[in-house]
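Format is chain and fold; as here:
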Amino acid sequence: MPVYAYRATDTAGKIRTGTLEARTQRLVIDRLQSQSLYPLEVKEQAEKSAMSLEISPRRLIRERVRQADIMDFTNQLATLLNAGLPLDRSLSILASLQEKHAMKDIISQILKTVQGGASMAEALAKHPKLFGRLYVNMVRAGEQGGVIELVLDRLAVFMEVSKERRDYVVSALTYPLILTGVAGISVAFLMIFVIPRFESILQQTGRELPASTAFLMAVSKLVQGYWWLLAGLIGFAIYSFRRYRDTEEGRLKIDGLVLRSPLFGDLVQKLEVSRFAQTLSTLLSSGVPLLSALSIVKETLQNRVIADSLIAAYGEIREGGHIAEALEESKTFPALAIHMIRVGEETGQLEQMLKKVADRYEKYIQSTVKRLISLLEPALILSMGLVVGFIVASLLMAMMQAQDISF
């Protein structure tokens, strides 16, 4: 049976550590809670042993604070506050638990700011690269409403959902990217090492090469002799594209083209609507006013066309309009999402309906990505087969012609 090492806090705020045998991590958590202990960390002992290996101070200093660290911090802080501990005591405990020096320093700075009389939101706002406007404003709303632990719980769930979406897309694209890399390396190897050897052999026959073989030889010479020029042109094209994309005009045009593209336009629109609905629902349920929430949501969207459409919606809502009507006039949101939001406004359940919109489009995104990946894999295999097949067929045609072999 697995052995789990745990860190927990009791009702007095003292840290308790130890080990328990259980079939699952969930059983360990349940057992600790039945003993009036609030678990902060529960891991298999083998994993903990692996993490307890000595690390040089220089390496620790270079460690970066990642989103997973912020998510763990949020979860643990919510657990301590739910246990009834004051904020400064909770932050002090979390600082002492950190294994990363960088994260320990950040929590210590937040604690120092809070002890100096600032609010938690003000302390977090001093680290904008780690705690964005969404995070800070939700914490501010929680402090004003006296439900900061509830807000932190919602933030942790929101961050977990976002992480799962990113992990799903990354895992889905891993195999196609590996396949593309292998195909590129294979073609480059044939062009640089294989074809030149055949060229020297075929030149000795003195016969005219087939058109496909001559084209192949010309491409091989171009790659061999001017690879640096090709690499420079590709690098310059990427640099120019990024510079243009960073401009306001360029970003609007590129994002507009993406939305109008037949293959990815609908997927990008649904992805942005899901992000919009999930973020707005989380903010509204945490007590953030609608207009302030819209201003925050605008900055979380990646597509500038959809984000800018919220500016007009913001103005209409500020003048007393309804959010569904404002979004409908923007012509960037799907009709189904607008209809569900309108129902939420009419029934006084806007937050719940936004959550349903996010869940609905999240399922659509996952099924669409899965379908695109299932189409992309055979397309890549077919493309690689055609390219390699063309190279092999061109070389065989030249070899057979040199030996007077007819097809």
Observations:
- Residues 46-62 have pLDDT under 50 and may be disordered.
- Residues 183-407 form a domain with the Receptor-associated Protein fold (CATH 1.20.81.30).
